[in-house]
């Protein structure tokens, strides 16, 4: 890896770093909001997803900032988590905080997709999948 002073992120990478850091902040703020609001906003699965999103966004930003060759993997995961988080926020209905979080997650997802190096999930081996399905429950 190059020394820190030699790492010069390009425009897309700089935008992704900023999007990840902003999404991290917004998701943490949204956790606090949701816990105060209660009800469906405070359901464990929604809070867990917001926390997952905040965490992967911070991790992706860190990988990008230090020029890690593995940033494509964290960006791939970040895009997936951001998509799920945005969908979860959208499902909360008309709520300005949920809309703001949804919008930020979608921007971060889009930015991370540019950084993920075209990674695609591996197609499972059909024979292995069948063997797993045949195992007793």
UniProtKB/TrEMBL annotation:
Q: Which domain of life is it from?
A: Bacteria
Its recorded name reads: Four-helix bundle copper-binding protein
Alphabetized InterPro entries for the sequence: Csp_YhjQ, YHJQ-like
Q: Which CDD domains match?
A: DUF326
């Amino acid at each position: 890896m190059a020394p820190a002073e030699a790492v010069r992120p390009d425009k897309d990478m700089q935008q992704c770093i900023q999007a990840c850091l902003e999404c991290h902040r917004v998701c943490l703020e949204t956790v606090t909001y949701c816990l105060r609001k209660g009800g469906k906003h405070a359901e464990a699965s929604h809070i867990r997803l917001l926390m997952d999103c905040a965490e992967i966004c911070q991790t992706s930003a860190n990988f990008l900032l230090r020029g890690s060759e593995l940033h494509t993997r964290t960006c791939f995961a970040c895009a997936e988590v951001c998509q799920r988080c945005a969908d979860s926020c959208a499902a909360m209905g008309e709520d300005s905080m949920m809309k703001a979080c949804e919008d930020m997650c979608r921007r971060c997802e889009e930015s991370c997709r540019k950084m993920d190096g075209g990674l695609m999930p591996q197609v499972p081996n059909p024979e292995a999948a069948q063997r797993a399905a045949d195992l007793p429950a």
